[in-house]
Amino acid sequence: MSDMLVIASSAATTFRKALDVSSHNVANVNTEGYSRQRAEIYANSPSIVGTSFNGGGSRVETVERMYADYIQKQLVSTNATVKGYEESLSYSKQVEGIIAGNDEGVQDFIQRYFDSMQNLADNPTSRVNRQLMLDEANNLTGHINNISVVLDDTQYQVNDQIKDLTQDINRNLEEIKKINDMVAYAQSQGTQPPNDLLDQREQAILELSSLVEVKTYKQPDGTIDIHTINGKVPLLSDNTVTRLQADQSAYPSENRIEIYAQIGGQRKQVTDLLLGGGQLGGVLDFRKNMLDRAQNELGVTMNAFVAANNWQHYQGFDENGDAGTSLFTPLESSGLAHKDNSTLGGEVKATFNPIDATAIPPYPPQPLTYGDKQQDLTDAYTAISNLSPDGYEMRFDGTNWTVTNLSNKETATFASGDSVQFDGLRFEEANLNSTAGDRYILKPHQDILKSFGVEIRDGQELATRGQSPIDSTGSGTLDDEPVRPAAEGDNVNIANMASLQSKKVMFANNSGQPAETLLGGYSRMASSVGMYVRGQEIQLTAQQNTYDYIMERRESLSGVSLDEEAANLMRFQQAYQAAAQVMQTAQTTFQTLLGAMRG
Amino acid sequence: MRVTTNQVYSMGFNAIQSHSNKLLDIQEQLSTGNRVNRPSDDPVAMSQIHTLNRAINTIDQYAKNGEYAKSQLVLEETAVQDTIGVLQRIRELGIQMSNDTYSPDQRRVAAAEVEQMMLHVKGTMNMKNSEGEYMFAGNNVKDTPYVDDPANPGYLVYIGNPNAAADYDENATFGGRFVQIGFDHTDKLEPNDEFNMSRVRITDTGSKVFGFAPNPATSLGPQTTPPAPGEIDPNIYNTMKVMYDRMMAGQKPGDDVLDDLKSSITNMSEVVAGIGGRQIRIDTQYEAGESFKMPLTERKSNIEELDMVEGISKFTVTQNALQMAQQVFGKVQGMSLFNYMR
After folding, report:
1. Contact B205, B160 (CB under 8 A)
2. Residue of chain B with shortest Cα separation from A126
3. Whether ipTM exceeds 0.90
4. CB-based contact, A573 to chain B, within 8 Å
5. Are B38 and A107 inside 8 Å of each other by CB?
6. How far apart are CA A167 and CA B328, in angstroms?
7. C-alpha span between A154 and A152 (Å, rounded)
8. A476 to chain B: closest CA residue
9. pLDDT one-digit tens code per residue, A116-142
């Protein structure tokens, strides 16, 4: 009889616990990262009564958390990828809208600029046409400057974003560290797993993966170690947080935020190790593979534009018969000093100066013959076709300088006091104050975007006329003639400048022939921007699908189904009522027995 | 598979989201009429569109250049035509006055007509266009082309002739301003004043139009090229001046004068034919440009523009899908076992 009561009360306890678990599930139906729980009900071990085994009721052995480690890991990984693509996509769409819009974009301004030159070539003595051409040139520079400002702003925006994200990551890691501590404590205290703590930790890791792509390693004491996806940066190891620090790059005036971490007691730059997933990985990928590239590619087009226009302009003569000066501000890109450079104030620069002239513009004095001057122009075109959308580093060893193209790592060297022509640019020292070990980086194609402007203010100074057609030696060619202007109404030079629109001047192919027009150079930039955005879009869609699928699997396994819980509630409620009924029966039976005795 | 409450929500929500996104894309394409609105819509097409735009716009600019060139050439043609008429009248007069029946007095009276014509011709020779440029000075558009001959008072000398002394500029013997009317495969205009396929010459030098190659046997003009110092410049004004002087003196105009007038008329007729030829070239280039532009424009619209029928039907399909998704979402939300547990 007492057994019956014991069994009934154990059953009542069991089912009440089961009802608790169901209620907990219902309560957390909308909790992010919650894994549904299930009461594992076991039969109590039987006792021996005579020769038979009598059951001993039931108990809740454990509350199990419905969770699969491999699904969670996949979820963390795809979540990082999705967030990475989302971030780079939203930034790159912003840039795409600015520089590559179809309407009123750079190409329209370039077209109008060249049209105004054609009009001037029709009637080179017209003051109105001269002014209109200058106006169009100014419109173009205005537009490019706007783009340049917005691109710069985007760089600053990226800098701020990197700072914020590293702080978020550090905060997240601290939080996980705290949960790690609690889990380890709980594990050392009891045998039951701390289900809800574990869920919280998984959720915190998932949130971390939105910021940066990570890999997790479970430790025997229940804590979790976290490394970046490539395993190279330990973010949380032995439950110690390695804080990420966002700080200026090694070239302070570059104004570029890089990420540093203390690894093995040393402060290392880890920016490139964080590339890839998570918002941080995405923003870094955007900066490296799109923003820097777009700036360089637009810049190389503008450098070619400025150089081609200027050097063709130098060939001509203005209204007064004076040699043409710089139409656009010529490139002068100063090197940014490394923070460890000596304090003597060394300076380096890159310019476009294919004939190593002592000054820009290179004339006067004029070359001896028209042929020589044409050769200068040919040299300039060769240099323009060698321009490459890259950044450069200059390093001094005390006697020699080494210039390195930061993309393809090709180098050129020259002795101190000298200069070198490399990738169409002239690299030299601006003063001789550098000492061994000094380093500089140069961004000639980003600098041109900032300095791009019209030098000529007065339409009369536009060099419309070309070389005089007089063949004084009767040699049948003008190449041996002295350099002298044609008559005022001549339009040879302005016609040649207008022809720059269709002339292939950029990106020499293997045989040294230029492959792109100036507008083609711009299109190439627009295309690569478009390719990047499209690539991110496609990747995002694919990864989003994967994420949705894995999320569904997680939901299917760990999610709460209200219908299921409703059914469980009814089931356990009925069982509870039955157990109560058993107690009632035991009571009645006992009373019956007592009544019989009293009888 | 086990279905959970959140799955039902997220599936419905995701479907609505993705349909809305698609709808937004199609809406943009429909409202701009373009399939390619930004580089990422089709990066390859984008660079083709740029190239096509450049070609089409450039052809338009060449057409504009042609218009301008034509207006200049028409002006020049009219001036030269007019001068030919004058010369023919002078030559008729000359032939008439060569007749022995005319007395010196009658010749002097006729000389007055010649003098008027001389002024008229001089005006044409030093004519300016609407832009204020001298039309017959080659590229020396700001210099008066025919100036008083310092060695021969009363005569005119072309500034490209060394005898013009202080006004002399050899550049004036070249004269071509070339205007681009078609694509140039070299993209370069040489300064050598020679014919260029893709461009048309819109100015001429006075010596080519109003001058003539003197015939040493019959001509009264200089016997050498270029003229020796002190010799008069071979141009129609000077020929008329000789004729005028002789007639004022009561003499016959002289066979040499008539001969030079004849060769001038021939020369100027050739100039007019040349100008006409250039105008025809401009027209031909224009036609060629327009017919070249047509396939370019068509190609551009194929690449860039949206097929409206396709776009609208896509819009309708997506719109229906979105409405379905919204309805399903609403219906599914109402389904719960709890509703039946009362």
Report:
1. yes
2. B131
3. no
4. no
5. no
6. 42
7. 5
8. B192
9. 999 999 889 888 999 999 999 999 998
